[in-house]
């Protein structure tokens, strides 16, 4: 089996705080054992975009992970292991990848999972939808046996291990792939099925035919939408829901209420997404001025309670893709330099632009602070608040000038960030920005499956984009934070945005 490096981020991912148990799902000392068949209720900021992997958005994995499995399993800590495939092997200088698939797996509709089913999903994903870019390098899919699959790539593709551990590796029942209701009625092989979908709530039930059903403690799940973070936390405190993600400034409130806190680093960051089609933002000097206009340290201290580490690059320093040369963010807050760059670009008196923000309190607060900081260098930003789905659509269609965004940089593979944001045709590069030498760098970072080799090209890419005026202005690397009522254990920090609901336990 092809081996991969374990993320350094996987360290310290524990369930801590009052009444907290370990990340492995053990119950707190003195509490009762797990309650079989319990209902787990989780608060989310919005409804799923689609249960069709070809139409899903970056925030959808929490829904997709409940109902689907991929060829390769990636744990919340970021480690790769057997999924729907039990083993795999690269050949021909990483241009051929062969899989041995798991026997005895069935889809929710009773259909058998085999190599033909796996091929059908891959072929569908590479033709239309959001996964086309990830699978563009795939040249041929061959069934070489009932449980044997061979993938041939146009060029070395070591990164595909991570890609196939994400949405691109998902198996959808062949009968459901072309069904019009796949967007709301997923048919996978995962531990849960969708039993209800109504405004503000998605209901799931344990799939008794799941290959490892005995490992699933909870019997059903309810994902309930609360647009505002404060409302979600109050719902946990009142017992209305069992848990939810929180922001750094909510830690003290959650601890004071006796809730357990999950806290750990991940590859998500807060930043300023720029549409380089906008006249001013098409100028590299203007984008560079924005980079120097942000006081990241004050944002971390005043808004995030110290849980959002200041950064000018997408990845935290503990990740293999990070650039050590960019660790110190102090030189990147320079109001005088930002003003000088704007003047050199022909905007000595600044300019006006619209700044989009999500509805949650943390996004709006950040937008207001960024608005004030940009004002200091002469940029007048008017804040426009967009609903959850509106923000997703704006980012995809390019109908925005700038937006305060939370971005998952590590999913499905760090190289995808370069493809999505730094190269023409990327789904979140609506302005058509092109990183100098980006195509060659992308090929280098994708060729090997060895993180050490890949890191060299990643560092070159980020050092280059900093000098070129980045289309994405990182502000801070977020710690993943979630709060749970007493008796709920087993939740693990999703380092790359992968969720494991099978480990969740609820005590009697």
Automatic annotation (TrEMBL):
<dbReference type="InterPro" id="IPR030678">
    <property type="entry name" value="Peptide/Ni-bd"/>
</dbReference>
<dbReference type="InterPro" id="IPR000914">
    <property type="entry name" value="SBP_5_dom"/>
</dbReference>
<dbReference type="Pfam" id="PF00496">
    <property type="entry name" value="SBP_bac_5"/>
</dbReference>
<dbReference type="GO" id="GO:0043190">
    <property type="term" value="C:ATP-binding cassette (ABC) transporter complex"/>
</dbReference>
<protein>
    <submittedName>
        <fullName>ABC transporter substrate-binding protein</fullName>
    </submittedName>
</protein>
<dbReference type="GO" id="GO:0015833">
    <property type="term" value="P:peptide transport"/>
</dbReference>
<dbReference type="GO" id="GO:0042597">
    <property type="term" value="C:periplasmic space"/>
</dbReference>
<dbReference type="GO" id="GO:1904680">
    <property type="term" value="F:peptide transmembrane transporter activity"/>
</dbReference>
<dbReference type="InterPro" id="IPR039424">
    <property type="entry name" value="SBP_5"/>
</dbReference>
<feature type="domain" description="Solute-binding protein family 5">
    <location>
        <begin position="80"/>
        <end position="426"/>
    </location>
</feature>
<keyword id="KW-0732">Signal</keyword>
């Amino acid at each position: 089996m092809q081996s991969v490096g374990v993320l350094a981020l996987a360290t310290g991912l524990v369930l801590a705080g009052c009444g907290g148990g370990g990340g492995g799902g053990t119950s707190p000392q003195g509490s009762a054992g797990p309650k079989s068949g319990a209902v787990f209720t989780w608060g989310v900021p919005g409804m799923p975009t689609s249960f069709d992997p070809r139409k899903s958005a970056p925030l959808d994995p929490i829904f997709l992970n409940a109902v689907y499995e991929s060829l390769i399993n990636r744990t919340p800590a970021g480690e790769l292991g057997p999924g729907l495939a039990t083993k795999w092997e690269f050949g021909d200088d990483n241009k051929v990848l062969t899989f041995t698939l798991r026997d005895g797996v069935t889809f929710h509709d009773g259909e058998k999972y085999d190599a033909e089913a796996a091929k059908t999903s891959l072929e569908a994903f590479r033709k239309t939808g959001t996964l086309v870019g990830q699978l563009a390098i795939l040249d041929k899919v061959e069934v070489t046996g009932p449980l044997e699959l061979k993938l041939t790539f146009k060029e070395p593709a070591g990164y595909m291990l991570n890609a196939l551990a994400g949405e691109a590796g998902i198996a959808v029942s062949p009968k459901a792939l072309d069904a019009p209701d796949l967007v709301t009625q997923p048919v996978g092989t995962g531990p849960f099925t969708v039993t209800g979908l109504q405004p503000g709530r998605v209901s799931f039930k344990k799939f008794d035919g799941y290959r490892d059903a005995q490992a699933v403690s909870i019997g059903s799940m309810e994902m309930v939408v609360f647009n505002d973070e404060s409302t979600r936390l109050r719902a946990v405190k009142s017992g209305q829901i069992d848990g939810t993600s929180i922001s750094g400034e909510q830690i003290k409130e959650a601890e004071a209420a006796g809730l357990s806190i999950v806290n750990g680093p991940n590859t998500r960051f807060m930043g300023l997404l720029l549409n380089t089609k906008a006249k001013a933002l098409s100028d590299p000097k203007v984008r560079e001025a924005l980079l120097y206009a942000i006081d990241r340290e004050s944002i971390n201290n005043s808004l995030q309670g110290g849980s959002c580490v200041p950064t000018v690059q997408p990845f935290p320093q503990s990740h293999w893709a990070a650039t050590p040369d960019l660790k110190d963010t102090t030189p990147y807050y320079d109001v005088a330099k930002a003003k000088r760059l704007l003047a050199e670009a022909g905007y000595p008196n600044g300019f006006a632009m619209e700044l989009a923000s999500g509805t949650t309190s943390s996004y709006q607060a950040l937008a207001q602070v960024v608005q004030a900081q940009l004002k200091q260098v002469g940029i007048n930003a008017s804040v426009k608040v967009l609903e959850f789905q509106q923000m997703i659509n704006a980012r995809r269609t390019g109908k925005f000038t700038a937006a305060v965004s939370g971005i998952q940089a590590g999913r499905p593979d760090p190289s995808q960030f370069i493809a999505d944001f730094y190269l023409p045709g990327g789904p979140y590069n609506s302005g058509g920005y092109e990183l100098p030498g980006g195509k060659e760098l992308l090929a280098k970072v994708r060729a090997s499956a060895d993180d050490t080799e890949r890191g060299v090209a990643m560092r070159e890419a980020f050092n280059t984009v900093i000098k070129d005026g980045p289309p994405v202005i990182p502000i801070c690397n977020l710690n993943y934070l979630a709060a749970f009522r007493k008796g709920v254990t087993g939740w693990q920090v999703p380092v790359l945005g992968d969720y494991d609901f099978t480990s969740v336990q609820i005590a009697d």
